[in-house]
């Protein structure tokens, strides 16, 4: 395994991010709110991603193996005054050949470290489909606690999926 570098992505990483996002939607369709087909319908997706990566509403972290983007996650902030103490961990994905090498943990730790430095963030929330025990175990190993299950949170071609709602207090 080569050396993995976790960094904050910017607009120059938009095409790499978009390609990895499409892979994620295809490889793990039940893990994301957006479907692969919906993603393909976006107009100028790389430009949209570039705007998102330069936005102050969120920070997207990328894990690189040499020059290849192999993992991502996003820390999203809210502009609502009464919710500024919260951030949301979204869109976690590591390409299959790099899974089980600690990359997801590195991405999450970088997001936690960034949230702590932010100053206002007191807790990080996430949701994960209940049929993904490996992801739930990963989040629990870092300190996230389940506080609720949203029944029938997602409706897929195969049926409904519940989501486990989790929080980490900083």
UniProtKB/TrEMBL annotation:
The molecule here is called Ribosomal protein S18 acetylase RimI
Query: Do you know which Pfam families this protein is assigned to?
Result: Acetyltransf_1 (PF00583)
The protein's matches in PROSITE patterns, at most eight in alphabetical order, are given as:
GNAT
Taxonomically, the superkingdom here is: Bacteria
List the InterPro entries.
Answer: Acyl_CoA_acyltransferase, GNAT_dom, YpeA/RimI_acetyltransf
What is the organism of origin for this protein?
Salinibacillus kushneri
Q: Where is the N-acetyltransferase domain?
A: 4-170
Q: Which GO cellular component terms are attached? A: ribosome
Q: Which UniProt keywords apply?
A: Acyltransferase, Ribonucleoprotein, Ribosomal protein, Transferase
Q: Which GO terms describe its molecular function?
A: acyltransferase activity, transferring groups other than amino-acyl groups
Would the keyword Transcription turn up in this protein's UniProt record? Answer: no
